[in-house]
């Protein structure tokens, strides 16, 4: 990391102020880490959903990254079931563990009104019993923290990973959020809504400093770190994923393509070449297997080895 | 409307193809209009939520307009309760009538698991009974159609208003969606994800043709048409709202400011000067009155007069 990169991420935090409820959220995060450290529990930070980049200070318009939070919310469930405490740092209103299974259906269609009671209708009983039981079982191991903008996200990412230092190699970072590469610095944003009477609009966006650099070296030097690389062009997937690993020196880059991300990923690490692949078969897909179950199983094994090599005391 | 404007909206539809499920949705819309026309029922088209503008053809990034769909989803409920059939043309995953009251709460926290049955817990029974009853009562008067992009929205808006022609002055259009003013024509979009290694990003956005012009004159010449003007700068609110009414010759422009939109709006029409105002008092706000209940009450009365003056046969 050269000196200029080092300055860029610091400048970003100087120029963009903390999100609301920041101190309360950081306190909650610290409490989870502290308790887990005492009990030697593993903690996974799962980031999920897209970040927004405001185009105006009184924000009416913003640039968004496509992400429903499918990967993150599904993975959070599998980390919980694999015994992890989970900090789920997600875009507000993106998919969440367990409730994701009900999206697109109305609860009012599942409820039956009886004179004395209101109940879940017969044909939804099995599904809702299973989901509610899981939710209620894992709820106390799940801390949900939400963000909207790029700046909110980066503030919370920095604070969370710093608080997770107390966990040493028990910490796993699973960076599945779709983070914007470009933004408009606050000082260059118009104050009011851009008027369309001004004719066509030209926007000039700056590069977001690469936060993986200070994250790996400064904020979370002992954590097991997994990042994602989403591409649309298959020919770039492996090279872009390798490039990212070589640049930041973390542990795994999961490469995926926009159109096949639910059935195929590659796992690029420092030792395996060609990279390990996870691909769902047609029969797995038909029977409802989610690729995140296999990704988490694979990572848990890698994390176990990592922990065995890095634990102290 | 001069000839060049006329061309621009036509060109937009030539350059942007129909959304998926378009023909099925238009069929559903036509059936609702046909039935209502026979029974002489009023129909309100309520548009709600923001439109997206893709920056890439394989869409990873897009520009979005801030809108949770609060105004539209609340208004749809009040139109239903005022006796309208409602076509709710809304951004996918934005707020919806009735379920909007449960946002931010997990249904799994409301469910109680009994050995033989799963029920709604005691302290949520009253609220969920009321909401479920309303939902089940009005469900058959509510057609939900969703969109994501600007182009999806405009295709559906054109088709819906054209199908509503059969209703004559029984049709009310309540255009509360936050529609983008700018877009990138498909021909100017890169095919793949924009690479951040290319350095800072310059975007050049074109003006979206003003669809209210053909809507008022060609698609829905007999409907009662209400549009919204959202501003952040108070000094521009009245003038911008009037300007819009004078330009398009429709019936009401509801002006509102980003920061006070839940307590204050102005209703600009062709005859009243200064414009009518609706403002919630502190006590109304405290007791849970929503400004949309008063807006809809006001518009229903205006629509009744309009219908009395315009009905034929």
UniProtKB/TrEMBL annotation, chains A, B:
The DNA/pantothenate metabolism flavoprotein C-terminal domain, residue ranges: 42-96, 172-260
Protein origin, superkingdom: Eukaryota
GO biological process: coenzyme A biosynthetic process
GO MF, one example: catalytic activity
Stated family: Belongs to the PPC synthetase family.
Descriptive protein name: DNA/pantothenate metabolism flavoprotein C-terminal domain-containing protein
Organism per entry: Daphnia galeata
Source organism phylogeny: Eukaryota, Metazoa, Ecdysozoa, Arthropoda, Crustacea
């Amino acid at each position: 990391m050269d000196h200029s990169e080092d300055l860029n991420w610091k400048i970003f935090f100087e120029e963009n102020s903390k999100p609301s409820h920041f101190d309360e959220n950081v306190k909650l995060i610290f409490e989870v880490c502290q308790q887990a450290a005492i009990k030697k529990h593993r903690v996974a930070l799962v980031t999920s959903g897209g970040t927004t980049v405001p185009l105006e200070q009184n924000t009416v318009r913003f640039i968004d990254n496509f992400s429903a939070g499918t990967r993150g919310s599904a993975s959070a469930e599998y980390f919980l079931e694999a015994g992890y405490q989970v900090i789920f740092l997600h875009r507000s209103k993106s998919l969440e563990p367990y409730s994701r299974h009900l999206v697109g259906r109305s609860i009012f269609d599942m409820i039956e009104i009886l004179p004395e009671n209101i109940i879940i209708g017969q044909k939804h009983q099995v599904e809702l019993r299973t989901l509610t039981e899981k939710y209620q079982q894992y709820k106390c191991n799940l801390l949900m923290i939400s963000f909207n903008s790029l700046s909110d996200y980066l503030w919370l990412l920095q604070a969370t990973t710093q608080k997770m230092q107390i966990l040493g190699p028990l910490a796993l970072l699973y960076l599945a959020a779709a983070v914007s590469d470009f933004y408009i610095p606050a000082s260059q944003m118009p104050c009011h809504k851009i008027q369309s009477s001004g004719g066509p609009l030209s926007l000039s966006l700056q590069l977001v400093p690469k936060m993986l650099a200070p994250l790996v070296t400064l904020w979370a030097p002992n954590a097991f770190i997994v990042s994602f690389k989403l591409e649309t062009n298959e020919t770039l997937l492996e090279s872009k994923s390798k490039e990212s690993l070589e640049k930041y020196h973390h542990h795994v880059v999961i490469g995926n393509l926009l159109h096949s991300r639910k059935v195929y990923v590659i796992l690029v690490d420092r030792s395996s070449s060609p990279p390990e692949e996870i691909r769902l078969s047609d029969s797995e897909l038909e029977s409802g297997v989610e690729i995140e179950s296999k990704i988490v199983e694979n990572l848990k094994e890698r994390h176990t080895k990592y922990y065995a090599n890095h634990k102290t005391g």
